[in-house]
Amino acid sequence: MSKIAGGIFTSHVPGIGGAIAKGLQQDPYWKPFFDGFEPVHQWLAAEKPDVAVVFYNDHGLNFFLDKMPTFAIGAAAEYRHEDEGWGIAFQRPFEGHQDLSWHIIEEVVASEFDPVTCQSMLVDHAVAVPFELCWPGKEAFPLKLIPIAVNTVQHPLPSPKRCYNLGQAVGRAIESWGGDEKVVVFGTGGLSHQLEGGRAGHINVDYDKFCLRNLAPDPEALLQHDTLDIVELAGSQGVEILNWIAARGALRGSVRELASNYHIPISNTAAATVLLENSDKVHA
């Protein structure tokens, strides 16, 4: 059986790509954020996962306001990154895992979700930035990708509970897969930030730390706020915490935090990185 080794939760601010391209990892503005990935690098080197299942939000690359699926799951043999002008421009493709993708899709539909199935799909900075942070300087990424896009843009948005339940369905699907792959789950985006309007630059440290404090031991605490509450608390883009909530739902074992890092601001955003370990002891 396949195994979910753990989860990586991190901001995907596109400006991080520009910092990587310019070699600013040791710059005082950026260093506290990049330093948070040292334990992640050590854990990945030890665990050597075969597949990354990434919960993220598309920024208009595949879906726009006229056609915005609530959930979309990639089932492609390959995914290519289309740079949006922020600095990370590379031609390396992300190799897909079609068989596991279809298994996840079938099991998620059996759990009464209705995802859009994407046999052709591009990925943007929400996937590319976390991969560059986790495997810096690699000529080829050492694992396969299954992207799962969550609508955090066009209202009505899915509820936190709906996202958490989706993650649980994905976790069950991975656990029931007959292969022997080791899987790492990603939740990307956030934390609190708003890029437009009268609240541009909004950061809510208290809400961010509430999320970080409860993510491992009590993820259902994050479900007490509905989507509009989160927009109010965390900003219109801070609602990307839905990606974290979905990814946390996939970690159905006995979860413990191995590392956590919080740094403000990065490009008007509260940036964070959390590493969770998922044991084989599965909760009912």
From TrEMBL:
Pfam families documented for this protein: LigB
Domain of life from the UniProt record: Bacteria
Keywords: Dioxygenase, Oxidoreductase
Extradiol ring-cleavage dioxygenase class III enzyme subunit B domain ranges (all copies): 7-269
Keyword match Oxidoreductase: yes
GO molecular function: ferrous iron binding; oxidoreductase activity, acting on single donors with incorporation of molecular oxygen, incorporation of two atoms of oxygen
Protein name, entry field: Protocatechuate 3,4-dioxygenase
Species this protein is from: Aurantiacibacter xanthus
Lineage: Bacteria, Pseudomonadati, Pseudomonadota, Alphaproteobacteria, Sphingomonadales
